[in-house]
Every structure is written in C-alpha cells, then in structure tokens.
Amino acid sequence: MVAGDRDALVCDGRRVTYREFDDRLRRLQGALRTLGLERGDRAAIVSLNSIPFTELYCGIPMAGLVQVPLNFRWAQPELAYALHDSGSRVLFCDRDPGPLADLVERVIRLDTDDYDDLVGGSEPTDFDESVDEDDLAGLFYTGGTTGTSKGVMLTHRNLIANAWNAQFVQPLSIDDRYLIMAPMFHAAGSVSVLQSLFVGATQVVMPAFEPAAMLDLVETERITQTLGVPTMVAATVEEQLARPRDVSSFTTYAHGGSPIALEVVRRGVRAFPHTRFVHLYGATETAPLVTGLVDEVELLDDDRGRSAGQAVLGCEVVIRDAGGTPLPIGEAGEVTVRGANVMAGYWNKPEQTQTALRGDWYWTGDVGRIDDGGYLFLLDRSKDMIISGGENVYCTEVEDALYTHPGVLEATVFGIPHKTWGEAVHAVVVRRTAVDDVDEAALIAHCRNLIAGYKVPRRVEFRDDPLPKSGPGKVLKRELRDPHWAGRDESIG
C-alpha cells in the first residue's frame, strides 16, 4: 500500500491513515452484514460531514448496498418522505432521530459509541467483488429548489466515471490536501472522495462550513484544494480580505452548484493571489460534473469568463430546442448531456425519468448556448427565466450587474406578477455592512448603465439577514418568490 501510512482523513483533530481506513472499511463490511442487510438494500445517512460519513459513503456501496445520504437541514416530514420513498432499512445519524426511528428497522447513532462499537466489534471482511458497475450505488435526493425532491439513482459506473472526469478538470495528486467543506449529502460535497482515494491524497473533513474556520484550516492544515458553492466562495473572500490568513498553500478554489458573479472572482483574486479559480457545472443527475472552466481568472475580461467552460472528458453537451433538434452554435436552448456519469433515472418516478432521460441524453432544464470553441454559457434555469413584455430576461445577467456595485454583498433576481408585462424583474439584495448609502434608486441607476432597460429591476427589496439557501448552498429563489405569486398561476402571470 503506497499511501498506507499517509493521512487519508483528518477531522476535528482525528487522523486516519490509509492503512487504518482500509481496515475500518473491511470491518464496516462485516458490520453491515451483521445487520441483516441484503444486496441492493438501502441505508440512509443523516449527518454532518465526518469520518464515519466518509466511511459509509465508501463502505455501503462496496458491500453491494445503496447509500441514501439525506439533507440534515430538512424538516422531519421531508426526511420521513425520503426514508419512506427509498425504503431504507437502516438509518445512520448523528442526532436523535425522533419519530424517524419508527420508519426503519435499525438506527445507528454516529454521535455516540453506537457506530464505533458496531464497526470496531466486527471482523474484517473482504469486499464483495461481485458488485457490478451497473449496480445502484446511491440514491441522492435533489434539493427541491425547483420542485418535489427526487431520488437520483447513481450507479457505481456513474460515480467512478465522475471521479475520472474530475481528475481531468481539477486534478489531484498524492501530495494534495483537499478540504471537504460542502455538505457530503450533496453530490458536489462528495465529488472528491473517490478521486482522492484513487491518487492517495489527504482529505480534511469540515463538519459544517463557516468562513473563518475554513480559512483557519487552510492555514493550519496547509490545504491545497477545495470546492464550494458561490455563496461559500463569496463569504471566504470577504473574510480573507478582512482578516488575512496564510493561504500560500492554497492552489485551487473550485466552485459550482449555481452561477457565480464575476465580481466575486475578481475579489477572490485579491484575497487568494496564488490560487486558480475553477468553475464547475453539473447536476446531481450527472454525478455531478458536466463542464469545467479551468482558466477562469485568465478569462475574467474575456466573454468566455462568463461561461461554465467546456465539457469534461467523457461528457457530450448539446443545446436543443423543445422538440429535441440540436441548435446551431450561439443559439439558446435546453442543455442536454450524455456520458457514463448520467444517472440511471429517478427512484420510483418513471414519468419524471421519461421526461429527463430521452434516449442516452439527460435534459437538464437549464437554458444555455455554446460558442464556436465549445464553451457553455448558462443563461438560467428554464423555470427561473423571466418573460417581461415578451422579452426573455435571464436572471444571472441581472445578478451580475447588481454584484458589480460595491455596496452589494448578496443578490438574487426573479420574476413577480405585473398586470401589463406579465412579469416584472424583482431583486432581493443584502448590503455590505460597511456601506450604508445604497438604496433602491442607486441600484436601479447602476443596473441601467450596464444592462438593457427591460432587464433592470423594477423593485429592489433589501434584507438584513443572508439570503435563504438550500443545504448545498443554493439561494432558495422559490422561497423568496412564492409570496409574490400566492394564489396565482405563474404560467399566465
């Protein structure tokens, strides 16, 4: 074992070498069998990021079982739905499960001695070599930002293909120290796990994201790479600019999950002068990588700096019209994806599967265009596109304009009802605490200098608290938008 005595995992002061990790996984194999679980059974996980979570992420599929990592921020009814929908027999959790315990055969607590006693008391067992690449490895429930949560079926082939895809767009080596800071229940949060194991890199696991603590870990653990959603990037950039740490080891800051404002990247260059920024685009349904922009900083002043990059190795991306016809270069339509990383379908949802998977292609629901160099420009989620007076307004373009104002810390844009135009552009903004003279008129005037008049927000709503976000860190536009549409049909304005 080349990396046997090197750290595989580090979390809250605990260090596990690759040799110890291998032994723990073999003991976990035996433990899972003592629970009476059979091939294809589901085992759910509700937990903050941790070493046990990482062991379960690897060990459950290696035993021929199916992991079901769930959003720990969900309310009891949402968790109950996913447990019932998945048919999970066992629940691994780091908290009191309450009534959820009645929905499974066995609860294993990760925050007590329960889990360690189970694993430590089991004999090491060989891995199940009969597991096939097309066997189901996990059910990853979507965040529900655009509708009812669905269990995305990812196979062993999907996850391994994604690990190789990641290696070509954000390569790791045995000398890397990768920080897991995004929630591991999300496909982006666990994107590094298999990739790191392939090369023998060290993974430092952060239980829950907090910008100051993240930067402290970069400094003390000499972190080299990480991945976060744009809201995480923005928060750490602000913290580093305000209270600098030694981040000289930090070579790569990847971000994904939603579009990022270029102003955040520009400030990031100041905060992390030795770091390259990588824009990754994908979806849970693609395990998750689809495209990567690896030279984001170099392209900041180029039109392609606004793109999501080019298709990762092993993925094909085609823009199509509603009828499925591929569109010419430069025309906007729905982003469709084909590759070994594309899901097998939605668990127990054949109609939704038929809509999303057509032949070998996954229809993402995202609106985009591709230029003559293969760079994908994401214009919006199709459900978030505003149609005002017959004109299409792509929210990210308006958000980019807002973010260039020095007084804007966070911004999101969506459509609200308008009796004349059908929809009007509405912005919700969180101001920087250091700037107190930003008002609605100033932001509207600022946007009017940057974008067409029909794209300019008609109203700007200010909030003192951070924008509401899903577990993976995406802004919950639906939560902000729904009160404006209460009792109305969005399709008719």
Structural class: alpha/beta
By DSSP (H or I, 4+ residues per run), the number of helices equals: 13
- The end-to-end distance, rounded to whole angstroms, is 62 Å
Low-pLDDT runs of 5+ residues are 489-493
Beta fraction: 25-35%
> Helical amount among residues, as a percent range?
25-40%
List the helices and strands and how they pair.
Layout: E1 7-11, E2 14-17, H1 18-34, E3 42-46, H2 51-62, E4 66-69, H3 76-86, E5 90-93, E6 106-109, H4 114-120, E7 136-141, E8 151-155, H5 156-169, E9 177-180, H6 193-199, E10 202-205, H7 211-220, E11 225-228, H8 230-242, E12 252-255, H9 262-271, E13 276-282, E14 289-293, E15 310-311, E16 315-320, E17 333-339, E18 345-346, H10 350-356, E19 357-358, E20 361-370, E21 376-381, E22 386-388, E23 391-393, H11 395-403, E24 408-418, E25 422-431, H12 440-448, E26 459-463, H13 477-485
Parallel strand pairs: 1-10, 3-4, 3-5, 5-6, 9-10, 9-11, 11-12, 12-13, 25-26
Antiparallel strand pairs: 1-2, 7-8, 8-18, 13-14, 14-15, 16-17, 17-20, 19-20, 20-21, 22-23, 24-25
Characterization of the model:
The longest helix is centred in the first third of the chain and has 17 residues, at about 20-35. The strands form six sheets. The chain has a nine-stranded mixed beta sheet with strand order 2-1-10-9-11-12-13-14-15, with helices on both faces. Strands 16, 17, 19, 20 and 21 form a five-stranded antiparallel beta sheet that branches. The protein has 13 helices and 26 strands. It is of the alpha/beta class. The termini are far apart. It has helices spanning about 20-35, 50-60, 75-85, 115-120, 155-170, 195-200, 210-220, 230-240, 260-270, 350-355, 395-405, 440-450, 475-485, and strands at about 5-10, 15, 40-45, 65-70, 90-95, 105-110, 135-140, 150-155, 175-180, 200-205, 225-230, 250-255, 275-280, 290-295, 310, 315-320, 335-340, 345, 355-360, 360-370, 375-380, 385-390, 390-395, 410-420, 420-430, 460-465.
